[in-house]
Structure formats: C-alpha cells, structure tokens
Model the fold of this input.
Amino acid sequence: MLSLSSHSLAYNKTTVTISESTCHSSFFKFSYNKSHYHTPLLTSNHFSAASPPLLRTATALCCNATADPYLGSSSDADVIIVGAGVAGSALAYTLAKDGRHVHVIERNLREPDRIVGELLQPGGYLKLIELGLEDCVEQIDAQRVLGYVLFKDGKKTKLPYPLEKFRADVAGRCFHNGRFIQRMREKAAALHHVRMEQGTVISLLEQDNRTIVGVLYKTKDGQEHKAYAPLTIVCDGCFSKLRRSLCYPKVEVTSSCVGLVLENCQLPFENYGHVILADPSPILFYRISSTEVRCLVDIPGQRVGKAGMANYLKAMVASQIPPELHDAFISAIDHGKIRTMPNSSMPADPYPTPGALLMGDAFNMRHPLTGGGMTVALSDIVVLRNLLKPICDLNDATSLCIHLESFYLLRKPMASTINTLAGALYKVFLASPNEPRKELRQACFDYLSLGHYFSSGPIALLSGLNPCPLSLIHHFFAVAFYGVGRLLLPFPSFERIGIGARIVLCAVGIIFPIIKAEGLRQMFFPTSIPAFYRAPAYR
Ligand SMILES: Cc1cc2nc3c(=O)[nH]c(=O)nc-3n(C[C@H](O)[C@H](O)[C@H](O)COP(=O)(O)OP(=O)(O)OC[C@H]3O[C@@H](n4cnc5c(N)ncnc54)[C@H](O)[C@@H]3O)c2cc1C
Done:
C-alpha cells in the first residue's frame, strides 16, 4: 500500500491513499512527505536505456488498446512529456487514459507556489470536463467565478458570463495554481501507463539531424540519462529553454505583473473577477481561496526595482483600488510578500519537427489580463488527443508530423480568439494621453456597460465559451464605431471627425499586428489550408 499523504492538500487535511491496485507501476511511486517533497522512491531508469535510437520501438498501440499491463521495459514509452505544469500533467493524464505509455519528466515535483494560472475561464473548465479532469478543481478550496466587474473613474459595470445554456457546475474557477497542478499530477501518476519522474531535461535528442527521438535529462543526484520515445511533447512553460529548436520564438515582454495576496477581506462583488481600469494600466482582483484574494498589478514597460516596489504600490496604486480593499492591500504590501512575473506574448510559430511537439506556454503565450493561458493549453490538449486517438503507431515520425500539421489549424479558433482578445484588450485598457486612445478606452467601457448582447458577446469570447474570431472582429470594431458615433452625435465638427478617423485607425493599428502574427489565413479561412484534408488517412 502506497500512502499519499498529500500535504499539498493540507489546508483541508485531506489524505489520499492509492492502493497497489490503482498503482501497479512501480515507476511512479512518490513519497509525499510533509515538507512537500515528492521524491521518486524508485528511479530505475527503464526508459533511459542507452540503446541506440534506431533500435527503439515504442509500443504500437492498437486503436482500441486497453490498459496493457505495464511491463516497464526500456521500449515502453510512447510519449515523453517535458514538464508537468498545467499542460504537461493534463496531457499525461489524457494520453495515458487513451492507452499510451507516458514518461513525464518534471524539474520539481513539489507543489508550485506562483502567481500565475489562478483563474480558469469557464471555457477552460469545459475542456477539463472533456478531458475527465474536472474533479481537479475540487477539494482545493477553489472559488466559483461568474464573470467580471469593470471599474473606471468611480463607475462600475458587471459583466456576467453567459452561462445560461450550460449545466450548473459550469463557471470559472479561481484557485491556488500549485494545488490545481498537484491534483492533476496525482491523477496522472495514478494511471498505470504514467511514469512521473523528477528530473531536468537538458536537451532534445536528434537522429539524422531532423527527427527528435527523445531527451537528455539530469536527475537530482546529478546523473545524466537518456530517454527515448517516438513522440516528445515539450511543455516546459513560459521560460522554455527547449522551444528554440521547435519554433521561431518571438517572445515579447509587454509588461510585468506584481502579485500580492490580500487576506481576510471582502471583494465588492464576491464570485466576480475585478478589473480596475487604472492609470497607467489595469489592476486585477479575484478570490483564490475562501480567505485570500489575489491582486495583480500590471506595470507596463518600465521595471520597478524590488526595493522601490512597496513605495510604488502605495503611492501610485493604492488610491486607485476600491476602498473596500484598501486596508488589506496596504497590509499585504507591509507583509512584504510581493512577487513579480514578466507578462510575455509569443504567437505560435512552430517549425514542424518529426518526433516532437510544443504545448502550453512553451508553444504560445498571450498577455494574462484575460486569464486565457490555461484555457488555450487545455483546448490544445483536446485537439491533440482527438488527432492522436486513431493513430496506432507513433513510430512513423514523418507521417505523424504531417498528420499533426492539422493540429496547428484546428487549434486556431480557440487559441487565436483568446490570444487576439488578450493582446487587443490590454492595449485598449492602457491609459494614454493620446486623444483617440482615450476615446477608445472610454468607448470600450461604455459599450460593455450597455449590457445584454454588448457585454455577453465580448465576455463569451474572453471566457472561451464562444471561440469565434469573426465575432471578435465584429465586437472590436463595433466598439471603435460606437466611439466614433458618440463623438459625431448630435453635431459633428471637423475636429471630432478627425478624432473619429483616428479612433478607427488606432483600432486597426492595435488589432491588425496581432491578427497578422496569429496568421490571417489560418484564423479566418482555416478550410483553405489543405493539411487537415491531406492527413486523414487515419480519420
Ligand atoms: C502573471 C501571470 C498571470 C497569469 N494568470 C493566468 C490566469 O489567471 N489564468 C490562466 O488561464 N492563465 C494565466 N496565466 C498563464 C498561465 O500561467 C499559463 O498559460 C500556464 O501556466 C501554462 O502552462 P504550462 O504547462 O505551459 O506551463 P507551466 O504551468 O509553467 O509548467 C511548466 C512546467 O515545466 C517544468 N519545467 C520547466 N523546464 C523544465 C525542464 N528543463 N525539465 C523538466 N521540467 C521543466 C516546470 O517546473 C513546470 O512545472 C498567467 C500568466 C502570467 C505570467
């Protein structure tokens, strides 16, 4: 009997016990001790045999493969997953559930403690349901999120998610990111086909200078190992070191987020995310547990040094937040646990490589204002799972690569909609002395305040409930023309016509570069791209 005294769940003193009947494989035995250490008890490196890549044949799964007894020979991994964060752990569970033998290599199996990935949009929750992972937001003190409240210059507007058509449990969720990840890791590790190992992947192993055949990684004892599999999926997050050989990484750091935890305070609107349209840029609040509220302050461009951060927050930010949160905000600053993360954007620009794929932030990033990263990652996993399902043998790397080209296309509606909205909304919400920018920002607030279709449309896009790029364009330009209309009515002047024209130009200038980076054709004319129709011998 392997006892998983999951200290990651210590706040409710839950003890999870996995019996040997649910944990056949000795590969993924972890001791979860009270210091949060998840130490592999057995690290015999079954996959990392030094057998030359050519001799490796991963288990060819039949399409209707059932759970084979996991023999653990060096040729058993079908897929290597690098990183067990949000994407890696969800992917490991998904592929193993489909009968693949999965070897996950994660740098640190302790519960992560970070300020990212704490709000899962309802669209992401729907993807969790599709993957059978929705119970991972249970028992972690996750809070339901029903929409957003937007604050600007003393006014506020409530933007509920359009959830009427969905079953009762569908909503957004806020939680501690580490608790969520740990739940997914536990769920994945409990599957027969998953071997989860602590180690840092150093590089990808290439054969014939073109096909990725596995990884070189280092375990805690400093030893280097090689692991081989017909497919390696790199999910090593936003600071990925491995993405360089698999994509053209155009990482742009637009701003940074400063994170604080406010304790024992009430949000003005419980169960809603709060977005303050502050100067110079937005501030977010959302409840991440029954006693804690996360505050993320966006700081554009310039970097504020750690030493000056507390003063900056008190002098520049405190006066702009809702009065109900003021004291808790100051107290959080005084307690000093101020964390910072860069906000990076990176369009997906893969270099299709036989034997390897990128997923999650390693593959594609967007500004975190709209909390879309996990939704995109989970949606990508659903697309990939559906594409891989009918493929019995992952060994034909070239044909697999061609087949997976359609992945880049099929992911587009969800990914492009969320990415474009995040980038565009962030720019619209930035305070600016420029007159058309000011008008556009105000028009956006007023348009959303109209309610009904005018708020539910954009919020359905943001939440991943309606991943439709055309609807995004429609609402974006509707905001711009709403701004122009207000300027010109009831009596237009030449000056106002001039500003109106500049509002439209400004809107084009904001959205067009993002769409261009996303790929105009893939985003709006996906069926004109032949890959999907070329591949489906397997469909
Ligand atoms: C400030 C901020 C706030 C955000 N807020 C939200 C939000 O509210 N909602 C939302 O949906 N998204 C949010 N995001 C984005 C979200 O955090 C990411 O999209 C999501 O975490 C991506 O998951 P991932 O699995 O790709 O990366 P991660 O979850 O970061 O996982 C990467 C994993 O890879 C491991 N790893 C790294 N290198 C190696 C290596 N060499 N070998 C082995 N393992 C390795 C790491 O230890 C880690 O466990 C936010 C981002 C930022 C910057």
